[in-house]
């Protein structure tokens, strides 16, 4: 029917009217003429046909070419042509697998994932996750603009509904990940109403990473210590900052400390950097003792070491005052990294109150004043709760390895980190060294894995790279 069967009727209120309500206002309902609906469908079809060659140029070109060949030469020619194309693709795949993967494999995969996973499940998942908006009884869904695949993840570019924010997605990454059957989900903002949801297809960090090659010229602002989830190196800044590594026993704190030390080896060797190590458990750092300029393994010795670091830092600051605003590592003024394993042993668990207080004071002084004069504290900690470590906030950079409780994630990585997908409490216990970090300039947590520096690696390091200048080499207290 092309006309409306009845004149405009009144909308009937579905709920029972309240008897005391004297007036009820109801909006008149005007049934849309069928002609308009059909016209709208046709318009959409035209838009789709116009857009299709731009969205899927290869597929459309192949279909059109096949059709033309079929009309001109018959179906046998089409079959032969397609067989030739298949053989060509086969040769491409065998001879140049990398470019085949990039230009064909991942694109076909993206088209498949777009249709099979995202387009099909988009509405139910978003509605159940609470990401669909309703306005005047109409539902508005964010729209998928594009799906691309990398070797390890799907990237779904989404246009947001006007009036919503990327934070709505960031707060529902768990729902989205489970909804689309991915191990995790991360949200990146590209621009206004333009976000990318990244869904890994498998865990790229499942295999342990062997100790990385020692760089010939170490960059103390970006030491390679492992890999990021996307396969690129995870670089850790030490110069100009302090780093706190948090994780339960067995989470792999040692591998972060050792990977950082390993990446600095040439600088330790030529004396432009020094490591001062404190190892209350005597299990972690004692193994590579000859690499360290100072070493302490008892409470008293550790406090003496820390106070000496403070004294040197003050002396340096005095010399620099008014003459120099930043530190350049030299053999006279080496970059000094104070590595503290199990720092809570000093600040919370040591039986001597005086040791606890002095250690805490020294660490607070180093972390608050040491950055610009070339002192860095790299500390490992099991329990991030405030009672145990109230110096947490003095460390600008933090690394969250496997944690005990969900509430600890935000304590370590800052507010909102867990909502943005840093599920450090869910890291599998079979994956030591896996962590979440926040890289410079981005609020988004990144999943990384530290390379594993084995005892054999440490043996090789001490044999080949022990500091040559023995001037700085002296143990403090009980560590001789
Ligand atoms: N990055 C890593 N990759 C693979 N295995 C690791 C890694 N880090 C640690 N491990 C394994 O986990 C064990 C515990 O690591 P460790 O560094 O001692 O933990 P923590 O110091 O946090 O208690 C190690 O003995 C090692 O076998
Ligand atoms: Mg340890």
From TrEMBL:
One of its GO terms (biological process) is cell division. GO terms for molecular function: ATP binding; DNA binding. Gene3D superfamilies: P-loop containing nucleotide triphosphate hydrolases (3.40.50.300). CDD domains: TrwB_TraG_TraD_VirD4 (cd01127). PROSITE patterns: FTSK (PS50901). SMART domains: AAA. The keyword Glycosyltransferase does not apply. InterPro entries: AAA+_ATPase, FtsK/SpoIIIE/SftA, FtsK_dom, P-loop_NTPase. Keywords: Cell cycle, Cell division. SUPFAM superfamilies: P-loop containing nucleoside triphosphate hydrolases (SSF52540). This is Cell division protein FtsK. It comes from Thermobifida halotolerans. The lineage of its organism: Bacteria, Bacillati, Actinomycetota, Actinomycetes, Streptosporangiales.
């Amino acid at each position: 029917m092309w006309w409306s069967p009845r004149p405009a009727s009144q909308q009937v209120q579905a709920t029972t009217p309240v008897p005391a309500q004297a007036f009820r206002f109801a909006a008149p309902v005007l049934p849309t003429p069928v002609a308009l609906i059909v016209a709208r469908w046709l318009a959409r079809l035209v838009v789709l046909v116009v857009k299709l060659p731009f969205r899927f140029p290869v597929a459309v070109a192949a279909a059109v070419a096949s059709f033309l060949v079929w009309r001109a030469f018959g179906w046998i020619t089409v079959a032969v042509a397609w067989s030739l194309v298949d053989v060509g693709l086969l040769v491409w795949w065998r001879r140049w697998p990398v470019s085949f993967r990039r230009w064909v494999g991942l694109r076909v995969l993206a088209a498949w994932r777009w249709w099979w996973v995202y387009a099909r499940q988009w509405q139910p998942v978003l509605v159940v996750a609470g990401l669909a908006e309703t306005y005047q009884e109409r539902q508005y869904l964010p729209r998928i603009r594009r799906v691309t695949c990398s070797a390890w993840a799907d990237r779904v570019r989404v246009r947001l509904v006007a009036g919503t924010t990327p934070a709505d997605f960031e707060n529902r990454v768990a729902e989205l990940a489970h909804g689309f059957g991915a191990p995790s989900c991360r949200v990146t903002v590209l621009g206004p109403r333009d976000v990318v949801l990244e869904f890994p297809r498998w865990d790229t960090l499942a295999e342990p990473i062997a100790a990385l090659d020692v760089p010939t010229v170490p960059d103390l602002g970006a030491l390679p210590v492992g890999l990021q989830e996307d396969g690129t190196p995870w670089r850790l800044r030490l110069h100009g900052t302090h780093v706190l590594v948090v994780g339960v026993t067995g989470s792999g704190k040692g591998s972060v400390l050792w990977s950082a030390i390993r990446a600095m080896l040439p600088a330790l060797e030529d004396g432009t950097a020094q490591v001062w190590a404190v190892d209350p458990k005597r299990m972690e750092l004692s193994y590579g003792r000859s690499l360290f300029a100072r070493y302490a393994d008892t409470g008293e010795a550790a406090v003496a070491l820390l106070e000496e670091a403070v004294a040197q830092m003050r002396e340096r600051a005095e010399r620099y005052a008014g003459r120099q605003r930043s530190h350049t590592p030299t053999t006279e003024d080496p970059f000094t990294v104070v590595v503290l394993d199990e720092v809570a042993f000093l600040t919370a668990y040591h039986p001597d109150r005086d040791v606890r207080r002095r250690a805490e004071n020294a660490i607070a002084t180093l972390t608050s004043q040491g950055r610009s004069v070339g002192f860095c504290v790299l500390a490992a900690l099991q329990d991030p709760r405030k009672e145990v470590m109230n110096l947490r906030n003095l460390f600008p950079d933090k690394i969250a390895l496997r944690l005990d409780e969900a509430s600890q994630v935000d304590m370590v990585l800052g507010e909102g980190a867990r909502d943005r997908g840093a599920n450090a409490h869910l890291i599998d216990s079979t994956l030591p060294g896996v962590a979440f970090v926040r890289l410079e300039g981005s609020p988004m947590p990144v999943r990384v894995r530290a390379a594993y520096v084995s005892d054999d690696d440490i043996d090789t390091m001490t044999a080949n790279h022990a500091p040559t200048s023995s001037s700085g080499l002296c143990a403090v207290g009980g560590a001789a």
